[in-house]
Design brief:
The chain is an alpha/beta fold. It folds into 2 domains: 149 residues, Diaminopimelate Epimerase, Chain A, domain 1, CATH 3.10.310; 57 residues, no CATH class. It is built from 9 helices and 4 strands, in the order αβαααααββαααβ. Strands 3-2-1-4 form a 4-stranded mixed beta sheet, with helices on both faces. Helix 1 packs parallel to helix 9, helix 2 packs across helix 4 and helix 8 runs antiparallel to helix 9. The termini are close together. 31% of the residues are buried.
Length: 213
């Protein structure tokens, strides 16, 4: 996935894997970091852009409407609409435009939905003692979610994850993707070692690697 190299180098991806291995050395807990290009649906963006550009164009041409809405110029408008749509389709591929076109409330909802989906897709809910943790980052939205299985949540309050998320969010705003991941992994590992120390050899149930979607 070539897109990831705009945010993480191969060396940084390897460092994240090493951080997971180190964090899980003395615990039965499992940590799975996941990064996705985006969580929000953006299929509506080209059409929305087209309508906005047309609205601006119509407003701008009002002083000249006596000229532009008569023959032969009136026949140009259908072709202009099609041209604007194709321009909008090209512009809609830019992440910053996608972000602007998705309301904040929708971003939050869709990022959380994607995080829950990844929790199950990566089988974090299937650890023996229900001690799996998902650290999820959605790049376009620059938002993060931490989900812990019920075995962990029975012992740790929600404030534990809020503190880690706050620090992770600071790093995302600075585009420090690798440091944000490793810092969050280390913090989760610290809590896991305290409350879920290794027993019976501590079999590694999930892969120690960054999942990239």
């Amino acid at each position: 996935m070539a897109w990831i190299h705009r945010y993480l180098t191969d060396k940084e991806i390897e460092q994240i894997s090493e951080a997971i291995h180190k964090a899980e050395e003395h615990t039965d807990g499992e940590i799975v970091p996941v990064i996705v290009k985006r969580s929000s649906t953006v299929g509506h963006v080209p059409l929305t852009l087209t309508l906005l550009i047309l609205l601006v164009l119509v407003i701008a041409e009002l002083p000249f409407s006596d000229i532009l809405w008569v023959t032969p110029w009136v026949y140009v408008w259908p072709f202009l609409v099609v041209a604007i749509y194709y321009v909008s389709f090209a512009l809609a591929k830019f992440p910053w435009i996608q972000k602007v076109m998705v309301p904040e409330r929708d971003e939050l909802d869709q990022v959380h939905q994607r995080a829950h989906l990844e929790f199950f897709l990566n089988k974090i809910n299937r650890t023996k003692a229900n001690t799996g943790i998902l650290i999820f980052i959605s790049v376009m939205e620059r938002k993060a979610v931490i989900l812990a299985d019920h075995g962990i949540n029975n012992k740790l309050p929600p404030e534990t994850w809020n503190e880690i998320l706050a620090k992770l969010g600071e790093q995302l705003n600075k585009s420090n993707w690798a440091f944000g991941f490793t810092e969050a992994i280390e913090a989760c590992g610290h809590h896991l070692k305290q409350h879920f120390p290794m027993t019976d050899g501590g079999d590694n149930q999930l892969k120690n690697q960054l999942v990239i979607r």
